[in-house]
Backbone:
């Protein structure tokens, strides 16, 4: 099952990166930055305070708690990250290369304002959520600007900050060296290898679950179908063979793709039954774990379905992936010749 969790994480990770880059290239840097801001602000509001409690960080000074949260939560998700404390009022967080968010050569296409939007959406909001109006974030480097990491520090000032002061850029400063011995650790016994593998899968899924409703809210349903659906199709097309290899699948034809979908659905946490139907197969899925609440209807489903259309086109372009019915949390498709 671990290979399945890794494959699901890879696929959704690629989709969220591809979606953002598709918006950059088709609609421009400013709309893409707004999408990223909304995505990270949504995640912040849903996860930050709960994560502070879950990771045992409540009661720590605000700057330290914030930096430790980002260190631990990102490590759980499989992201390279460093934590460097200086005092109770100043603590660094550093995301060295290779960057998880902008996998591979994707980093070459990410505008500076898109990276800044992530910090505005989350890091600059920590003080507000913690009820500490003196806490801000100072960014000292951005990888997308040609520097060796995304880095900065949480700082508790001597006065309350205005909203526009919660995020500041200071490119002349540099983080001290990381000492792993001084970094926080996950609670002993609470994070088994299996739990960490599932968490990495969930980490990637949550990015997509948060992005889709913001995509629809920002661009409207029709435009979201183009931006989200086309990017999903391309990601499925580009990564389908890689995902098959991760799962150790080599069989071609309809049977091979049916098994690929069944394995990925199981790894995602959905129950799927596969039945022979003439020269093809009928696949029935109960539940849709990805479903974003705000777009659990036809809009969000159409975007997600395009992933499998793209993956199938790479697997065998003579096959067709056709939705038969979607009733509540039960979905069925037919997979067969055109």
Residues:
């Amino acid at each position: 099952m671990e290979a399945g969790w890794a494959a699901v994480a890879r696929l959704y990770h690629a989709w969220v990166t591809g979606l953002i880059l598709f918006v950059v290239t088709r609609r421009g840097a400013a709309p893409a930055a707004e999408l990223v801001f909304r995505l990270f602000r949504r995640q912040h509001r849903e996860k930050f305070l709960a994560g502070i409690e879950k990771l045992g960080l409540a009661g720590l000074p605000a700057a330290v708690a914030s930096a430790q949260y980002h260190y631990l939560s990102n490590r759980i998700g499989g992201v390279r990250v460093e934590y460097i404390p200086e005092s109770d009022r100043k603590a660094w967080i550093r995301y060295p290369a290779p960057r998880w968010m902008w996998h591979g050569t994707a980093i070459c296409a990410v505008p500076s304002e898109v990276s800044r939007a992530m910090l505005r959406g989350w890091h600059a909001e920590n003080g507000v959520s913690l009820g500490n109006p003196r806490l801000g974030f100072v960014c000292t480097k951005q990888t997308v600007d040609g520097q060796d990491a995304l880095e900065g520090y949480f700082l508790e000032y001597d006065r309350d900050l205005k909203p526009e002061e919660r995020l500041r850029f200071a490119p002349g400063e540099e983080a001290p060296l990381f000492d792993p011995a001084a970094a926080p650790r996950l609670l002993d016994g609470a994070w088994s290898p299996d739990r960490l593998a599932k968490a990495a899968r969930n980490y990637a899924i949550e990015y997509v679950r948060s992005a889709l409703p913001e995509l629809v809210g920002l661009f409207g349903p029709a435009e979201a179908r183009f931006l989200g659906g086309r990017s999903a199709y391309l990601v499925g097309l580009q990564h389908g063979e890689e995902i098959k290899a991760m799962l150790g699948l080599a069989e071609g034809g309809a049977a091979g793709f049916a098994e690929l979908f069944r394995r990925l659905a199981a790894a995602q946490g959905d129950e799927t039954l596969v039945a022979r139907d003439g020269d093809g197969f009928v696949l029935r899925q109960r539940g849709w774990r990805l479903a974003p609440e705000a777009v659990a209807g036809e809009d969000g489903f159409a975007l997600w379905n395009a992933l499998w259309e793209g993956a199938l086109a790479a697997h065998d372009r003579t096959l067709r992936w056709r939705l038969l019915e979607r009733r509540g949390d039960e979905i069925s498709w037919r997979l067969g010749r055109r």
User: Anything to note?
Assistant: The chain is about 50% helix and 20% strand. The chain has a mean pLDDT of 93. Residues 279 and 336 are 6 Å apart (CA to CA). The domain at 2-182 is CATH 3.90.1520 (H-NOX domain).
